[in-house]
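Justification of computing resources. Each target in the renewal requires a structure prediction run like the one illustrated here; the chain below, 332 residues long, is used simply to show the kind of job we budget for.
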Amino acid sequence: MGKIIGIDLGTTNSCVATALANPPEVFVPKTGEAVGGTPKFGENDPLWNEAAALTVDQKAIGNSPATAKAYLLWDEANLYVRVEVQDANIDITAAEPYMQDSVEVFVSEANVKGAYSAEEGNQYRVTAEGKTSFKTEAAGWDDSAATVTATDTGYVAEMKIPFRNGFAPKVNDVIGFDIQINDAPPATEDRPQITWSDNVAGGYSTSAKWGDVTLAAAASAMPANAQASAAATGEPVITFHEQTNDGSTLLPIRAIAEALGATVSWDGATDTVTIIKDGETISFMIGQALPDGMGVGEIKEGRAMVPTRFISETLGVDVVWDEATQTISIYN
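Resulting structure tokens:
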């Protein structure tokens, strides 16, 4: 007869309980869209307003206050990326480009996830002064494929990234994609990196945490920054017939702001509109560029008119286009 032994399962049960109480974090890549269209490169083309913003604010390394909004367009040859960086301190003094304030974009046309070869994925960088570099050389990617404009709050980079290796993009294709903002480091800190999808900023070595971007159809039938009518719920605050100027949809700011309960004042001496809503003050000058490439306000038939993107992002409302009636409605 064999020996009878006792077994203490306490430790095992404790480990199981701990594991159940603290399950491993499951990483979920970010998702976004690139809208079909070819922008006038480096000219704040209103076509950018048709793309939904990707928010780049994940502090992957360091604790930089820098953030960005990114907008994506595409055509049969290129992926177009506009990145509006908010960073009060721009530093391009380091010898190495990756140590300077810069934007990095990662693209995998085949959406490979994991360690990637030169054919499966690539990195494209432009510094805050407009100098380009790369992980793997790509025909068409050089200083002429990127423009950078300084703003009062940082800089705006536009990048024309060529599709490679015979990739023939079509609507509903999904590509691997990520954005990383490099913030030049203080002398005592590692280089801060802010990302869209990869929460550890490992995109140079692996695409495992890059996001997924769907190539969407052109939105030319829909006014800039308006949403599909199916997105609306409830009753609109106010509705207008579409009014455009050079392809940009304009709406009367006073009527919308007052319908939302805000107060609006006009300073004729400086052509300045001031809006006060929920204790916050928003001011802009007619004829002057609005922040972050949103376009320009103007006077039409005695009314101050602004692009729809300014309405949506500044007042925090939904701007909805109804194709059947050719109208634009504002939903709070």
